[in-house]
Specification:
The protein is of the alpha/beta class. It is about 40% helix and about 15% strand. The strands form two sheets. It has a six-stranded parallel beta sheet, with helices on both faces. The longest helix is centred in the C-terminal third of the chain and has 18 residues.
Length: about 325
Amino acid sequence: FFIPDARIGWLPHAVSLGQHIIQTERIDCLYSSSPPYTAALIARTLKRKTHLPWIAGFRDPWTGFLSTPVRYGIAKKIDAHLERSVYAECDRLEVAWLGIAKDFQKKYPDIDATKLLHIENGFDEADIPAVKFERNAKFTLCYTGSMYGKRSPERFLDAVRSLVRQGKVDPAKIELKFIGRFGSNIMPLFEEPTLKAAIVVKPYMPHSESVLELLRSDVLLLVVDDSSDSAEIVPGKVYEYIGTQRPILALAPEGAIAALIRETQSGTVANFRSQSEIEQAFLKYYERFWAGETLWEGNAEAIKKYTRREAAKKLATLVHKLVEIHPPTFHDTHQ
């Protein structure tokens, strides 16, 4: 039972160390990134002590989000009070996806919404080596990440299995790689006889190796959680997928991810509840691969703005503006 999260024990030491750093390094602006939400409370305390401008960054919403604890009674009220105080006291609220901004405005319509700024997660070009691989002997599709609960490959596997039974796909000519952590409800799905020989399951691996697995593949599989919140969520992995310049087969609802993939022309979106759409998308790439056609058709200019370099420029510009508005005169860290 920790509010807002299990990192709350960091707060006293982090504030003390933060005061020392601000004083010795002559810091002009504060930036926090959450979750963990304790990071925002640390920054809030430092702002109160120093009066420095503060940008509160959020990768996910706070209360009521699908990955945050369900709270009741006094615990729920305390958590909401902390959330509100952070939103109200920060100078700017930077969000990684627009759904966070919508969540903020819905919960707290009385707090000034002009402080909101959307800066996408983006991908780091340095994480994606410029390497070339031999053409795969089989049409190779890859998924990296975790799967559990409402995130499942079941509909995708059903679609591919259907194509095999229709005689449109030869299971000996495909390889389906699943790399990461998979729940006990997921592993049996990989054992069904029709596709078992085509499926390769690998455990979690270092990020650099995972990126190489993506680059060795012909198509990347993206599976969005079957949840009402999914339409607004854009995980950081989506940008990394785009950065590899491998076409994405996305099983997703209409929403932020679908719009991003269409804007960047980085793949095909199939409704995750429509087996026929999934079949069509898979078959398109399968047939084009065996016809020797180019699979990647991404829009380089559209993709460029989603690099971490561009995101850093936006953040740096914001910092400079805030420092101009709130020029530091002294850093009082002893209040």
